[in-house]
């Protein structure tokens, strides 16, 4: 496949800086009217994606994945809540405004390609630029060929889509989605109809585009593929599971993750702030969302010692839950940066522990390893 370097149009300076929020859903609900009343599809969705992230959305059929994508692209509107993409409030725009905005800011790769059959692949890409009017007219032909070269298909530029394989048509669809240099690229099951080798090449292309600053959002049923993206959003029955809880407790079912996520409360601790002290009796379990949390052991006749540093997706506070004793160590935010954690009440987690033998075994193993380490540090 050809080099992945993106062609820089004269509009490229508008691309957002990496790391800032580019997609934000705030309290989004979506319900469809039926003969028997409203049917809820999305429920209180809060989701933020940053520029340059490669995010996968996974979930069973009927869980709300496609509806969620339709909110982000503006193809559909929320029943309640707000949708912001690239600092634009999509929920306030008219259909005409939305169509023009989408053509300039959003690249969409459909599962079944949606290429116009009577136009060559080159003309399919050119038409996308003609419609949006974002790329200067004098640059469009060169850009179309460059994008086909980017996906390894420049030699097929003047063929009709029907002359190409399914994998080749998918790569043309990706080139077309990139036609107007959008900051966000969205793909619905982009590898679902491809053989494994072609699917791998498509994934590598997405990964490279993300490394160059594009925000890539894909819906996929392939959990092994999802694990290779920067982040994964699990949707179950219209609700998003907390991604850090999902990383910390991967053995839970989607329904169990949603139940735990509903009770998770985000808390921020300034550098060096104590979260709890050794020997205290708290009723919360914690998952790290950002920054570092230090686990500190207090020793008699000796200085305190940091026995572990935990990062995003790791948990702490499980020993009191499992063994009913006071905190065996202290926990504090690292002295170098704030730490954000999610606290989950013991009652909710105890209920899930009672249902999941795998979670109990995993958590008990971790707790036993940590207690053994503590005893070693204490010289027992």
Layout of strands and helices, then pairs:
Layout: E1 21-34, E2 37-50, E3 54-58, H1 65-73, E4 80-85, E5 88-89, H2 95-105, E6 106-109, H3 121-132, H4 140-150, H5 166-177, E7 184-188, H6 196-211, E8 215-219, H7 223-226, E9 231-236, E10 239-240, H8 243-248, H9 254-263, E11 265-269, E12 274-276, E13 284-290, E14 293-297, E15 305-310, E16 315-316, H10 318-323, E17 330-333, E18 339-345, H11 346-355, H12 357-378
Parallel strand pairs: 3-8, 3-9, 6-7, 7-8
Antiparallel strand pairs: 1-2, 1-4, 4-5, 9-10, 11-18, 12-17, 13-16, 13-18, 14-15, 14-17
Major sheet? 6 strands, mixed
What is the average of the pLDDT values? 87
What is the element string, with H for helices and E for strands?
EEEHEEHEHHHEHEHEEHHEEEEEEHEEHH
Report the count of strand segments: 18
Number of helices: 12
Shape annotation: elongated
Give the oligomeric state of the chains in this entry, treating copies of one chain as homo and distinct chains as hetero: single chain
Any low-confidence stretches, pLDDT <50, length ≥5? 1-18
Strand order of the largest sheet: 6-7-8-3-9-10
Pairing-aware structural class of the strands and helices? alpha+beta
Q: Provide the gyration radius in Å.
A: 24 Å
**Helix share of residues?**
25-40%
End-to-end span in angstroms? 60 Å
Strand share of the residues?
25-35%
Outline the structure in words:
This protein has 380 residues and is an alpha+beta fold. Helices cover 34% and strands 27% of the residues. The protein is built from twelve helices and 18 strands. The strands form four sheets. It has a six-stranded mixed sheet, sandwiched between helices. Strands 2-1-4-5 form a four-stranded antiparallel sheet. Strand 9 and strand 10 (239-240) form a beta hairpin. Helix 2 packs across helix 3, helix 3 crosses helix 4 and helix 4 (140-150) packs across helix 5 (166-177).
């Amino acid at each position: 496949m050809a080099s992945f370097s993106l062609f820089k149009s004269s509009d490229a300076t508008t691309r957002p800086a990496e790391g800032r929020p580019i997609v934000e859903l705030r309290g989004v609900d979506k319900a469809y009217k039926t003969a028997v009343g409203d049917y809820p599809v999305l429920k209180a969705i809060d989701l933020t994606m940053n520029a340059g992230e490669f995010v996968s959305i996974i979930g069973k059929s009927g869980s709300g994945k496609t509806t969620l994508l339709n909110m982000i692209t503006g193809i559909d509107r929320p029943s309640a809540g707000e949708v912001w993409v690239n600092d634009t409030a999509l929920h306030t725009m008219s259909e005409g405004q939305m169509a023009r905005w989408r053509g300039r800011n959003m690249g969409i790769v459909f599962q079944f390609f949606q290429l116009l059959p009577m136009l060559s692949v080159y003309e399919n890409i050119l038409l996308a630029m003609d419609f949006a009017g974002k790329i200067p007219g004098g640059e469009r032909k060169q850009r179309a060929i460059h994008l086909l070269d980017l996906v390894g298909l420049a030699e097929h530029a003047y063929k009709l889509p029907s002359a190409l394989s399914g994998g080749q048509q998918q790569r043309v669809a990706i080139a077309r989605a990139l036609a107007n240099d959008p900051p966000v690229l969205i793909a619905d099951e982009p590898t679902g109809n491809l053989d494994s080798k072609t699917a791998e090449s498509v994934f590598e292309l997405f990964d490279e585009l993300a490394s160059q600053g594009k925000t890539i959002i894909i819906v996929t049923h392939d959990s092994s593929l999802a694990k290779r993206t920067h982040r994964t959003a699990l949707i179950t029955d219209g609700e998003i599971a907390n991604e850090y809880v999902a990383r910390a407790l991967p053995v839970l079912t989607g329904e169990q993750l949603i139940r735990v996520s509903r009770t998770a409360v985000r808390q921020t601790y300034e550098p060096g702030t104590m979260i709890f002290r050794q020997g205290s009796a708290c009723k919360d379990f914690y998952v790290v969302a950002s920054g570092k949390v230090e686990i500190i052991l207090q020793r008699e006749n000796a200085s305190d010692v940091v026995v572990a540093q935990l990062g995003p997706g790791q948990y702490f506070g499980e020993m009191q839950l499992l063994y009913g004793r006071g905190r065996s160590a202290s926990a504090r935010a690292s002295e170098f940066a704030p730490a954000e954690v999610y606290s989950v009440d013991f009652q909710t987690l105890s209920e899930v522990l009672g249902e999941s033998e795998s979670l109990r075994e995993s958590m008990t193993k971790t707790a036993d390893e940590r207690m053994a380490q503590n005893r070693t540090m204490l010289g027992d």
